[in-house]
Amino acid sequence: MDTWAKRRETPTPDRYRHLIESLPITLRPALNQQLTQWETLFPYERNAMARVMRGVETFTPSGLDDLIAPLKALEMKMDVKSWSFSEANDTIENASQLARSEYYGEWRKEVQRFFDAVNYASREPVRIEVEPTRLIMLILPKYLPVDPLSAWNHWDARGHEIRISGDSSRLCELAMKGLPNLSSPSKLTSQQGEIANSDLWLIDADGTVCSQLPSSWNAGSVLNYAALRPFRDRFLAELNKAPKDIHATDEIISTLRIKAWDGWGLWPAALAGNLQLRRFVIDLFLSGNGAVIFSNSFVEWAASEALRRARPQMLVARFGARSKPKLFTSIAIFENQQKISSLPDVDDLENSAIDAAILARYVWLAISRYPEQKNTICLCVSEFGNIAYMILPEEKGIGRSPERTMAPEELYSWLAEKLRS
C-alpha cells in the first residue's frame, strides 16, 4: 500500500495501540487516555490524534529511534521508571512528578520537538480550500451592570465598539432563529471529516438562550448550566468525598469519569442521549476551575474547552449572575452553599458583571491561541449598555463608520454578510 493510501485509512484505536507502546513512557498517558475515550472524542480531536499517529508511521524504525532518543535519555536522567507513573491516563500524580523534576523544562522542550516533528511529517499534499469564517458571540445580559466606559479596556485594540439603537437583547433572539443559516456548515464539515453537532455550540448560564431555540432545533451542542443543577449537586457531593491526597484523588477522579451516571436520572433531557456532551461536562467539572459551582466559570470554561477540543464554526455563550458567597461556607473547596446553609440565595449582580466581562475576554483569548483565530469574528454584546465590541479577521474591513449606531436587525444582517463573504 502506498504511503498516502495508508494515511487515508480510517483511524481506529486498535491500529494505534502498538504505535504508542513504541514511544517514550511520558508520551503514553495522554495518547492512551484519548484511545480509551475514543467514542466520546469530537471529530477535530480524532483527526488530531490520527495526524500524530500518521506522522509516527512515516518514520522508519531507525528514524523514529533517532527522533525519540533524546527524550528517552532524558527520562533515564529523571528516573521515570522508578516513579508511580500511570501510562493509561493523565493524572495529577503524573503531572506532579514531572513538575518536581529538575529536568522538567528540558522535558517540555523535547516533547514539543517530538510533536512538531510528527505533525510536520504527517502533512498531506496542500489542497487549496477557502477557510470558513467562524463566529464567537458572547452575551452579557441586560441585568448585569457592565460599565460601558471600561467594558473593552483590555480587549484587542483591533476591535470596534458598536452602539446599538433599541433593545440589544433582540440580537440574541435573531441569532437563535438564524444561526444555522448564517454560514454554510458544509465547508467546515468537509474539513473535519463528518457531520457533527460539535460545529455549533450554545452555552447558557440561566437557560435564556435555550428558551429561544425553535422546538425543532437540533443542529448543535447545547449546554444549559441551570438545567444541569440536579447533576451538579450529586457530582459535587461525590467529588467532595475525595481526601486531600494526590493518589486517592486520582482514583476518585478516574472513578467519577467512568461512573455510570445515566442510571441516576440526573441528566437534562437535552443530554440524555448524547454521550459526547455528557463526557464533556464530566471532564469540565473535574478540571477544578469552579465550573461546577459558578455559572460564569462554567460558561467561560465550556466555551474555551469547546474551542480547544471541537474548533466549532459557531459558538454562542451567554453569561449570567452568581449568588453572593454565604457566611461560614467555603467556595474555595467547592462546598455546595445551597446544601450546607439555610440562608437564602442573593444575586450578586455587580460582581457578576465584573466576572462576566473579564471571562468573556478570556474566551476571545482562548481562540487566539489557535490558527482558526485568523478567520474568526468575535462579537461581545453588553445588553445593559446597548453596546457591542467586534473583532474582525484582518482581511475583513468593518466597511462602515464605527460611530454610527445600528439597530439589532441591521447588525445581525451585517454580521451574516460578513460571515458569508
Descriptive report:
This protein has helices at 3-7, 13-21, 28-36, 43-58, 61-78, 92-100, 104-121, 170-182, 185-192, 208-211, 229-239, 246-258, 275-285, 295-309, 337-340, 349-367, 408-420, and strands at 134-140, 160-163, 200-204, 221-224, 314-318, 376-382, 387-391. The longest helix has 19 residues, at 349-367. It folds into 2 domains: 3-121, no CATH class; 134-420, no CATH class. The chain is globular, with a radius of gyration of 23 Å. A 7-stranded mixed sheet has the order 2-7-6-1-5-3-4, with helices on both faces. Helix 2 (13-21) runs antiparallel to helix 3 (28-36) and helix 8 packs parallel to helix 17. Helix content is 46%, strand content 9%. With 421 residues, the protein is of the alpha/beta class.
Main attributes of the structure:
single chain; 421 residues; alpha/beta; 2 domains; seven-stranded mixed sheet; 17 helices; globular
Summarize the structure.
With 421 residues, the chain is of the alpha/beta class. The protein has helices spanning 3-7, 13-21, 28-36, 43-58, 61-78, 92-100, 104-121, 170-182, 185-192, 208-211, 229-239, 246-258, 275-285, 295-309, 337-340, 349-367, 408-420, and strands at residues 134-140, 160-163, 200-204, 221-224, 314-318, 376-382, 387-391.
Distance between the termini: 41 Å
How would a textbook summarize the main sheet?
Answer: 7 strands, mixed
Average pLDDT metric: 83
Query: Roughly how much helix do the residues carry, as a percent range?
Result: 40-55%
Number of helices: 17
Order of helices and strands: HHHHHHHEEHHEHEHHHHEHHEEH
